[in-house]
Design goal:
By secondary structure, this protein is low in regular secondary structure. It has a domain of 132 residues: Leucine-rich repeat, LRR (right-handed beta-alpha superhelix) (Alpha-Beta Horseshoe). The protein contains two helices and ten strands, in the order ααββββββββββ. It is elongated and about 60 Å long.
Length: 272
Amino acid sequence: MGNTVKAIAAFIPSEKCQKLLVGDLKEMPIDKMVDVSSSHLRRFPMPVCCFTELVKLYLSDNNLSGLPPELEQLQCLQILALDFNRFKELPLVVCSLQQLSILYLGNNRLQYLPWELSLLKELKCLWLETNCFSHFPDVICELVNLKTLHVGYNQLKVLPPRLRRLRDLRSIWLCGNQFTAFPKVLLRMHFLDVIDVDRNHIRRFPSLTRLRGLKLVIYDHNPCVNAPRVAKGVRRVGRWAETPPGPFPGCHQCGCGDFGLQVMCKHSEVGP
């Protein structure tokens, strides 16, 4: 179906036009998945709510700004993709889907998250990239089973100390925000595997050698004067990444990793 026809069908709120977009949904798909991404939908396809055993629902890249309360019937849903839509706030009905483990909300217009999101105790992956968050949503700190958090390309400047409560968190993606300093709370999250602070405004990186679980740190596109010092075997992506991760001569006090630069560490009286 051509894009023009699909766009017209999506705009007209008639059952016949909706069938052109989502098909004649009468039976549960064998794979328990419905994918109506990129269908120019302006309203939720209501026949989907009849599939109470549905596990995966992809609504990405549409024109949705709301969801019906009937969505609550999908209590087996584990993956919900709402990215690339027009949501200005998260519909509360999403917070009633207590089996959700992966939630895609990127590329919308969200500025905050409701406290009811904390009801999603099984949530393991949360994608919030490219929204309008200027403050880190506190409710995220209640998602104790979270393993992956992507909040890149927002306007975040700080992370709350309570974030360290997420002891199952293994990767955090903070690229494209407004951080001017490396978030201190991350230095106490020894269980992290991946830290991405690419494309921020961080000038100086602390030593990350105490992060015992760290496997990858991405710090490229920052106006930094040093590279983060890391333990052996940790991969770095950024300026001076290929330089052996040893301390800057004369910087034995802080181990800040100011190596290979024509600058003097603030803790040292000896230049390079």
